[in-house]
Amino acid sequence: MEQQAPKKRIFSGIQPTGNLTLGNYIGALRNFGLLQNEYDCLYSIVDMHAITVRQDPAELRKACLRTMSIFLACGLDPEKNIIYFQSQVPQHAELAWILNCFTYMGELNRMTQFKDKSAKHADNINAGLFTYPVLMAADILLYLTDLVPIGADQKQHLELARDIALRFNAVYGDVFTVPEGYFPKVGARIMSLQDPTRKMSKSDPDECYIAIIDPPDVIRRKLRRAVTDCEATVRFEPETRPGVANLMSILSALSGKSMDQIEADFEGKGYGQFKDAVADCVIAALEPIQKEYDRINKDKAYLESVMVSGRERAQSIAYRTMLKVRKKVGLAALKL
Ligand code: TYM
Fold first, then answer.
1. Residue 215: which of 287, 273, 294 has the closest Cα?
2. Would you tell me which CATH number, out of the four given (1.10.240.10, 3.40.630.120, 3.30.300.30, 3.10.450.50), belongs to the domain 214-295?
3. Residue 257 annotated as catalytic
């Protein structure tokens, strides 16, 4: 009998802070479910990344479970995918330390997210914030990942992970797989509704983003108030008219329509009608997820079972990688 080639591996992570947004959904989460049959997938709730900014401990614990509920509500099958909390697999931290020794200060200094975050949290520019991309590289490389579904804002971090993998492999032989990014064709960067020159972010004020769990009336209100311009024509001109272009990207990503089709559909129609159509489309996409979310998030026993199984399966892969890495760099063997 012909042997099947082993499936390629996918890894991605999402921080469990604040409310996950429509940007997280279109940029990353939505792609997770599409890939679950062809790939071996791990999806992590990256709680250790979250503590690079101060968190309320009880709230963080709840947010982790909420994030897991959203993963499941988006259709991720916990049998097919390994869904787990990053901090429950200690090898992430262990590998991050080793990779810190293969990363240059100059590389980390160039990371735009570090610059943004240190401006936002000027009172707490800690070393974790600085080495955050190394932990992210460890997340990815630990599982010998082939493909990383992410939004455009994580591209620079992924490139660093690739550079670290290549550097490590050049010294020790082929230890790590060099990962590729997987970006959505439309919607890799969903912008803020109030300032469409900046990305939609869950840490911005409420009116700037749509949360995956926002009720339909809230979604409609936020979209009606979204910043556009005074041209009142629906045309895709992201450089000069970023507000309309952003709403078009949302509509295109969720409906599958091209920009040309959308322009034709709204020829001669005003922004009111256009924004309502975007709202209808977003509400229709999120409603089934919200229903599932409400059900799953109440079922703590189920969430616990997903957490335990995900942790055990992730640990077993991570343990094998670390055996090899420790041996390569000359650290004492770790016997369980
Ligand atoms: P995070 O938690 O900020 O975002 C999770 C995912 O959502 C994408 N995303 C967006 N996509 C389009 N438009 C937006 N406005 C938007 N906002 C967020 C992000 O690109 C991301 O894919 N460092 C990562 C988490 C992480 C990770 C990893 C990702 C840690 N380790 C390993 C992949 C692999 C982050 O903070 O994402």
1. 287
2. 1.10.240.10
3. no
Q: Tell whether the torsion through CA atoms of 328, 329, 330 and 334 is positive or negative.
A: negative
Query: 183's torsion region: left (phi>0), alpha (psi -120 to 50) or beta?
Result: beta
Question: Does the CA dihedral 113-119-124-126 come out positive or negative?
Answer: positive
Which atom of ligand 1 lies nearest, measured to the CA of 152?
Answer: 20
Question: Which CATH class for the 9-187+299-329 domain?
Answer: alpha beta
Instruction: Read off the pLDDT of residues 247-274 as tens digits, 9 standing for 90 and up.
Output: 999 999 999 999 999 999 999 999 999 9
Residue 2 — pLDDT band, cuts 50, 70, 90?
A: low
Pocket test for ligand 1, best of 134, 153, 157, 162 (most atoms within 8 A of CB): 153
Per-residue pLDDT reduced to its tens digit, 185-217: 999 999 999 999 999 999 899 999 999 999 999
- Single out the catalytic residue among 155, 202, 257, 324: 202
Is 117 marked active-site? yes
Our answer to whether residue 115 is catalytic in this structure is no
Break the chain into its structural domains and give their ranges: 9-187+299-329, 214-295
Nearest atom within ligand 1 for CA of residue 192: 15
Q: Are 45 and 34 in contact (CB under 8 A)?
A: no
